[in-house]
Amino acid sequence: MFIVIEPYRFLPPINGGHKANYHVCEQLSKKTPLTCISTTNNPDIKIPFKIEKVFGDKITKYINPFVGWKIYKSAKRLKTKQILLNQPFMSLLILPICRILGIPFLIFSHNIEYTRFKSMGKVWWPLMKMLESFAYKTADKVLFISEEDRQFAIKNIRLMEDKCLNMPYGTSVNQFPMDIAESRRKVYQSHQLSDDTLSLFYFGPMDYAPNQKGLENLLYQVLPEVRKTNKKVHLFLAGKNIQNKELNYIQQSDDITWLGFVDDLDLYIKGTDVMLNPIWIGGGVKIKLMESLSLGATAISYRSGSFGINIKTLEDKITIIEDEDSKAFAQKIIETPISDKKKTPKAFYDYHHWEKITDRTLTQLSLLQISS
């Protein structure tokens, strides 16, 4: 029995953290008996794995010994062979349980959290560093969501290399979509764009600081450089909670469309020519970049915004620009031809598909042997 601890509501999966846990549980449950232990406020919906709602979703759950006792009783009753904790926050409770039961303690690290908080100016990041360092050093294995995070932890937290595994964020899409051309036709007809216009797309909740900084970079630094040329471009923006300053700027620009909240993001991901990812702060894997690439997007990204993506599998489907180099970012847009999108290489799907990721991870954990 494999137990996964998800310390907050994650159903239905909405954000990247939710999706990572959901798909890991989904794929693991196909290979080995699994139960996810989580909070009582997860709704009763149909899911492909077992879940036990054991503790309340209160801030005290991370240190409350009664929560630890409930998890211990479930783990003992289920006769679990190892526990995988999503993120390190509950490690002070889960570590003793694993030691008492004599089973391995695993952590799935979604970010190096203290560096994320530090980059966002949170004054309490040193406390997070202490907790995170303790959790990773006491765990038997740490599964990092990006190779960049893994290498950072080995160097800066001084973890043993054989303790650190790479379990990247994945995609449920396993091949290049067949409706790229049709999606572009729909977008261009809907917005009355001429075929010689290069369409750009940037999306995300704009009340999240990294996304807001990316938006400011696009509007006030990148786009003005593009406008100096004869390049005909149109920038589509989607999301929610945009600032009035940026909204007023967009409304005065003929070459920008604010879409607001979009139900069908896939249409614009597949129907525009280039997905933009001008992100350099916040840490972690930029889920929107991963999902866009899996849906056939061609992307331009700042280097830090591409962490967690296996760039080597993408050939020329993504261009990496050094962080905050707005002129280079703009120049790449200017140089991008208007043409049919090249297919996302099969190697990308082979590496980043959730089933492939789970098989590799279980092999590393010696739970599954895959024939060659």
How does this structure look, described?
This protein has 14 helices and 13 strands. It has a seven-stranded parallel β-sheet with strand order 3-2-1-4-5-6-7, sandwiched between helices. Strands 10-9-8-11-12-13 form a six-stranded parallel β-sheet, with helices on both faces. It is an alpha/beta fold and 372 residues long. The chain has two domains: 2-170 and 353-364, Glycogen Phosphorylase B (Rossmann fold), CATH 3.40.50; 180-345, Rossmann fold, CATH 3.40.50.2000. This is Glycosyltransferase. It comes from Flammeovirga yaeyamensis.
| Helix amount | 40-55%
DSSP, total strands: 13
CATH fold field value of the largest domain: Rossmann fold
CATH class of the largest domain: Alpha Beta
The proportion of residues in beta strands is: 15-25%
Structural class: alpha/beta
**Sheet with the most strands: spatial strand order:** 3-2-1-4-5-6-7
CATH superfamily of the largest domain: Glycogen Phosphorylase B
Shape estimate: elongated
- What is the H-and-E element order? EHEEHEHEHHEHEHEHEHEHEHEEHHH
Characteristics:
Glycosyltransferase; Rossmann fold; alpha/beta; six-stranded parallel sheet; 2 domains; 372 residues; EC 2.4.-.-; 14 helices; transferase; seven-stranded parallel sheet; elongated
